[in-house]
Amino acid sequence: MRENKYGNRELSWLKFNQRVLQEAADPSVPLIERLRFLGIFSNNLDEFFKVRYATVKRIDLAGKAGKKVLGGFNAGRLLKEITQIVIKKQAESLEILDSIQNQLKDHDIYVIDENEVTSEQAKFLKEFFLQKVSPALVTIMLNDIDKVPNLKDSKAYLAVKMVQFEKDRLTNRYILIEIPSSIERFVVIPSTDGKKYIILLDDLIRYNLDVIFNIFDYTSISAHMVKITRDAELDLEGDLSKSYIEKLMESVKDRIEGDPVRFVYDKEIEQDTLDFLLKKMEIDTTDSLIPGGKYHNRRDYMNFPDLGAKHLLYDKIEPLPIPGLEIQGSLLEKISKKDYLQYTPYQTFSYTVKFLREAALDPKVKSIKITIYRLASVSHIASSLINAAKNGKRVTVSIELQARFDEANNIKYAEKMEREGVKLIFGVTGLKVHCKTCIIERLENQKIKYYGFISTGNFNEITAKIYTDYTLFTAHQGILKDIEKVFDFFEVNYKIKRYKHLIVSPHYTRSKFSDLIDQEIFNCKAGKKSGISIKMNSLSDYGMIDKLYEASRAGVKIRLIVRGINCLIPEVKGMSENIQSISVVDKFLEHPRLYIFENENHPKVFISSADWMTRNIDHRVEVTCPIYDDDIKQELIETFEICWKDNVKARDFASKEDNSYRKKEGKDFRSQFETYNYYKQKLKSIDNKQ
Description:
The protein is of the alpha/beta class. The protein has 18 helices and 26 strands.
């Protein structure tokens, strides 16, 4: 048995983000989509430093070895390795950006800087700056203050060095300009020659430095971008007289004063300017100093304008209806007869909204209970729940206010719903509520009948267009009574419930999945058909990894599709030789959790909100739901098989090279496109039968 049985979580995450960067580099991906993948890469990296890097840094500063937490790594050594990897990948991302922008010229799209502005463009840009940009600028004269005000987390700033004569000698004046986020980063310049021109807001400000500083007599001026990333951990301790929401709001605001964990700067910045900033901001060498290019906050490339260039974008897919479930009719009537599965974005998310809207209007519906983790900024889900409360329904919402980086949005909706008479539950002390469930009570023939849905993803109209997720609509009374018990647990959480159908974290997930794996081990040893197929976002819990290793050693064939973090090391003789593992990163973000156990030719199939991470298993409320409908069970198995066959966007975890694409056999098979075709064929076959 090898000594190092597990991959490091932080390094595994960085490999996942490198897969995102691979999409930006892939010439088969449309050019503007490649820019957007660069934006995703940058946004992911920001969040990584705010959360994971900050956690490792706290371990290091506390003087703990942290080896158990960090998978055998010393915290200080891990920080250095992370920094080295990030510097390398940042440089690679800059090369990719330059390459894409050069290729855009072949399509008459030009991203120009302040030195390329023509006389025809100058008038528009000066006017645009004076009318829209100048009033929004915050400019900090650093020489005139003792201490730099707290720079906002992940905001971009231009560090300006102005050289001027004072008392017959040259002196340097240093200034920070905050790049306003209220204005679009990409300014589209009106075209006069049929070509399309864009200038970044940063360069527009550089172009107008003479306007900003016209009261100064200077000999030279330069501006280079810098950005600081702060520890995003929330502090909810303290004043007992304050409400939970008050504490959370204060803690979210306090993020702007969190300890710095990364300082990114333009590698062309003058050394004296960099030294001045670091000293003034009291940033020492223990922080992660990352030299970068001219532009930071490349997450903004997620919103790069399409400029009407449809040929430089993925073809939009029209979300399909669920076969046999007409959205125009009564969903509850249909669901009362059989279960239905929704797989977004291949199928429309509108069914989720319609379910709640119908429940809000139906006089027979008496109550609605739902868990909410991340809402869209404009949420039809929230509107439907408020509508239901106004119609006299008892509406209960368990809303997770600590959904990281969505706290403010969730607080906004929580306060709005509470004003409208919705009963709010703020989770369970010490546990995040991450499950995705809804249950309604409907009075039928003087008896209460339950309807509901369970999902692998958030009830969010925006992410449902880019995240792949399963949602089960059901009237199975046993499953729904178990969901009712979950809501009871939210309110009386010192009582541990017993569930007949659901697998619920934090009490049962580890033991139940261990039992399911043990059954496959037993079947394999008895010569019966066995096997495990799992699709999830992340796999980092050592206990569950050890259980899979045990199954592998017993001869159980295991297939893993893990999009992100994967600390399991597959295909190692004597440890994991029967485990194959891939990751698929493509147009959509793979987000479902799907668990399939062969069970002697009678598969047990589950969808879940839970990854196999320690936090999901032991420190969150999660729901794993069994699939009883044979047609849906088969559909889930078939969609897993489609994803497993991918030989275009699948990376092989067993490869000695990081993120090596799976060895291609036969024709190209791109699973996300094939999944859409699968559902189109399902609709055709139903139409043909009719």
